[in-house]
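Pasting as-is:
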Amino acid sequence: MELAPRERAILALERRGFPGPGAKERAIREELGLSPVRYYQLLNALLDDERALAADPVTVNRLRRVRDSRRTER
């Protein structure tokens, strides 16, 4: 089973770089029509989805490492 278009769009947004503060949040609202809080909820669930790993292993593994390092800092 493939990722839904919104799930692919979330991963695509994560692959991009953003020039300054607020740019990513603005892109989340404008391009995906989501609040940043909802976006990060969906992204976090997506990181645990094996379909996402198969679709974009570099991005998913990078984000998993970031998430894991933040969890160990707490």
